[in-house]
Every structure is written in C-alpha cells, then in structure tokens.
Amino acid sequence: MFSQKIINWYQENGRSLPWRGIDNPYYIWLSEIILQQTRIEQGTKYYEHFVKEYPTIRHLADATEQQVLKSWQGLGYYSRARNLHATARHIAHDLGGAFPCTYKDILALKGVGRYTAAAIASFAFRLPYPVIDGNVYRLISRLYGIYTPIGTARAYREFEQLLGKLIDTQRPDLFNQAIMDFGSMYCKPSGCDCDNCIFHNECVARQTGKETLLPVKQSPPKTAERYFYYFDIRWSHPADTRLVHLRNEKDIWHGLYELPLYEAQTPVADKSLRWVCDERMIEWFGEKPSHIKVGPCITHQLTHRTIIARFVTVNYDYAPSKIPETLLQIHPDELKYLPVSRLIDRYLSEM
Ligand code: SF4
C-alpha cells in the first residue's frame, strides 16, 4: 500500500528534473555525484554544464584533470571530481565504454557509495535497490516510529531491510524518486506539512507528537580549525606577475591552485603578521617586499574542518632574483582560468 500510494502521489506531484525520465546511466551518475555536493537548483546548472561539455563518458575520459576540476569549481570536495574523472577513464578504457549494469559492479566504481549505486541501478536499469539518504531516513523513521540513530551501520541495515520489503520491484525507479521527493517536500527537517501529508493517518510520529524528535541523530564530530595565511604576491616589472602554487600534497584541494600559503598551527596575532610575512618572504625570495597590506580574514567551512584564512597583499617593485620552483609565475589575467578552491575564488572575486 505504501509504495502504491507514494508512487501515485509522485506521478501527479513529483519534481521534473533534467535527469529524470531518462535511462542513460552516465547522465544519472553525473547528476548523483553533483547532487551529493549541492542543492538541486545549483546542481542543475553544474549538471547542464557537464552534459554540454562532456556529452558522453568518452568526452569526460578524454578531458584533462585540470579541465574537470575547473568545471567542478565551486562545488567543493574536489576528490569527488577526481574520482569522477578516474571512473570515466576506467569505464572508457577498461570496460569498453559500457557503464556497469549490476548493483555490485556499479558499487565497485571509484567514488560510488551504496546510495549512488542504488540510484543508478534503479533509475537506469530498474533494479530493486532502495536509496537511503537524509530525506528517506527522515520520512521512514517518522512514518514507522524508528528511533535507531541514523548514520550508523545498524540503522542502514534496518532501513535497508524495511525498504527492501516496501519497494515496488516493478517500478523501483519511481519508488525511489517518490520517497526522495516526498521527504524533501512534505516531511521536512523542520516544519513538516503533516496536515497535508497523505500519510497523516498512519504516521507513528504524527500520532504520537514526535515529528520533531525523529530521526534520532548522532552528535556530529567536532570540526577542527586550520589557520591559512595566503600571500598575494605581485610585481609589475619587468612584467605584471602574480604567484600561485599547485596543491599536490595528500590533503584538501589536491590538484587545485592557490596563492602561496603559510599554514600556522595556532592563529597568528595581527601585530605579528607583518613580521611573519617578512620572514616568509626572506625565506622564499631572499629579500623583503616593498609593501605589505594585511587584508581580510575569511572563515571557510568544510565538512570536518573550519579554515580561518587571512590574505596578505605583498608587493615587490621588481621581480626578486630568487623564486622558489614550487611557485608558478603567471600573468594576472591567467588566474581566472586556473581551477581554485571556493575560498580562493571568493577572495579573487571580492578583491
Ligand atoms: S505525517 Fe508529518 S511526520 Fe508523518 S510522514 Fe507525513 S509529513 Fe512526515
């Protein structure tokens, strides 16, 4: 009854999205990876850009990593873009360009978790694997009065078992799209629309007044702080020049460009910042700059880290005689073509 009721609702009220009603696993995969990072409105723009720029998996495989990172710019979590690219290459080169068509083989792809594998398997190949995301946890925990803390392996097994019984095996694509849409449109995190909900008579949370207590969540992990001091180093003789650095360590923003960075273990007091800057410049270039301007402090939130970034503009009258090999000299106009983190993009666009 549940699946029939929710599919009926979906057929009349479901959202029309560019990756719905299609069975191209490549496009479905693209949409799912992008939507892990952002909301539907912004995700649609990225999806349309990717489909236009890389219309087939071979186009994506043939692109350079820098091109893919540039297309991804602004979405964050750049390892997802690198996985997307690596997986496209794997499918194009090792699997003859054919997207895997079983749940197990889809799940084996780099960067594909159980949610994404279930979404691709059900939307593209009509395989009865239920998707379980935040919307589904919320709707099902309220509807059935389940108090197991979500985000745990135990909860995943419990919800998967229940949804395995509920899913419409003939129309798993519609079933999955329906519960995702319904959860986000009616059974919202706060202010759920119980009065107009088609399940208000059978919903356990509604009947017991526990809508706001479900789902039970584990306390989130503490976010660590990191202190980034960026130096926007420039000179105009003999030519207009800015310096950038390619992040190639195993760390956040791998493969992206940024301004030369000094990372401190603890925050640097304002009065010490000029001194720290002079010291860095002497270490890198063997000489002090002609002018330093301490700029804005920007707080940038990542999933498990908070980046406290400070930007310092550093001017030299002439190009220093010694420049570290790790710093790349570019013309200022070239900056906009480089893939950069959202933090650097924010700084550059607000300058
Ligand atoms: S009645 Fe309210 S809490 Fe229950 S499923 Fe509907 S919207 Fe969610």
Report the portion of residues in β strands: 5-15%
CATH topology of the largest domain: Endonuclease III, domain 1
**Count, helices:** 14
Based on the coordinates given, report the CATH architecture of the largest domain: Orthogonal Bundle
Distance between the termini: 58 Å
The pLDDT mean sits at: 93
Q: Which structural class should the secondary elements be placed in? A: alpha+beta
Shape: elongated
Find the CATH superfamily of the largest domain.
Hypothetical protein, domain 2
The molecules bound to the chains, other than polymers, are: iron/sulfur cluster
**Could you give the order of the helices and strands?**
HHHHHHHHHHHHEEEEHEEEH
Main sheet makeup: 7 strands, mixed
Helix share bin: 40-55%
CATH class of the largest domain equals: Mainly Alpha
Structurally, the number of domains stands at: 3
Radius of gyration: 25 Å
Q: Would you identify the regions where 5 or more consecutive residues have pLDDT less than 50?
A: none
What's the multimeric state?
single chain
